[in-house]
Amino acid sequence: xxxxxxxxxxxxxxxxxxTLIQRHQGGSSMQSMYYVGLDVHKKTISYCVKDVSxxxxxxxxxxxxxxxxxxxxGTLPQPWTAAMEATVFTGWIYDHLKPHAAALKVAHPLxxxxxxxxxxxxxxxxxxxxxxCLRCDFLPECYMASTAIRERRRTLRYRNLLVRQVVQLKNxxxxxxxxxxxxxxxxxxxxxxxxxxxxxTNPEINDGLRSLLRLCRDTMVRLAKTESALVRSLERGALLxxxxxxxxxxxxxxxxxxxxxxxxxxxxxxxxxxxKAVSYCGLCGAEKSSANVxxxxxxxxxxxxHLQCVLIEAAKMAPRISPQLALFYDRxxxxxxxxxxxxxxxxxxxxxxxxxxRRQKDFLVMERENQTAA
Length: 374
What we know:
The chain is α/β, with parallel strands linked by helices. It has 3 domains: 21-135, YqgF/RNase H-like domain (Nucleotidyltransferase, domain 5); 148-236; 241-285 and 299-363, no CATH class. The protein has 15 helices and 7 strands. It has helices at residues 5-15, 66-73, 90-97, 109-115, 123-135, 147-179, 192-201, 207-236, 241-247, 255-265, 274-280, 305-321, 323-333, 338-359, 366-373; strands at 34-40, 44-50, 56-63, 80-85, 103-107, 285-290, 293-299. It starts with a helix and ends with a helix.
């Protein structure tokens, strides 16, 4: 039997986006919910408020200050849920809005760009697109760590900046000596006793150069002490002390690697498999396949660069510390590439880190466990 015209129109109306009814996890109707899309910038925030049918309730922009946000939230219809794109300014806005919203989500910028691509683009349209993605449940949500984790992560990344500056100063000392034609022992240059003796006894170093070298050395020492103090404060903090101590039972995992993993990953349960954790750490290449052609690219740039750097450094040291990882490295290296062997060790470390974090037990080598059981 053919449906009548009125019945066909009714089906079309139910399927249209204008009458889309969102449902939360419990499954009950959310017709009264209002959806807010935010396009966040350094000085301004553009917003768009829509109801469940997609009708715009209000839109505009406001100054990116806590005072203006408080005044703006007082004008919003209740209840409301909001979404914004992940930027360097998202953290404090997220923390400020979260207590007042029914739900608050942060969108992955790369994936959101693919969904909201348009010929015409401005802040008002971007806010409306984010609002529509949230309303239609198409928002590519990214993980947002707790405030305490993000604050400590900021401290750890500042420590990484200090380490880079120390390396720059060491290189600068060597450059200054080479510019003046001063011969020196490369292995002992940054030792305290050798450096002091070099400045005092070498006649090729004049007073101007000597003052610059001492300035570089003093700055380098201060930065190194600050870096060590930051690592100790993070390592001994009540929030991470137990977790870091447990992660450090893994071979080649020291305080910096354990802290970086704990603070950059946050909740390890967000990875459903070790492969996804490896991908997040940037230890695998991307794949571009079409028809029967398969293309593998080098290490993907879509990664956490802080974790990638620390894990590769740990993987280079691991064969010297762990006999099991040394055998694994040699087996991979025999396949013909030392760099690929290092990456394989780094992926093995990720598997260890995920396992220890999930089980919340100290690392134990399987062979030893079998011997004890026997």
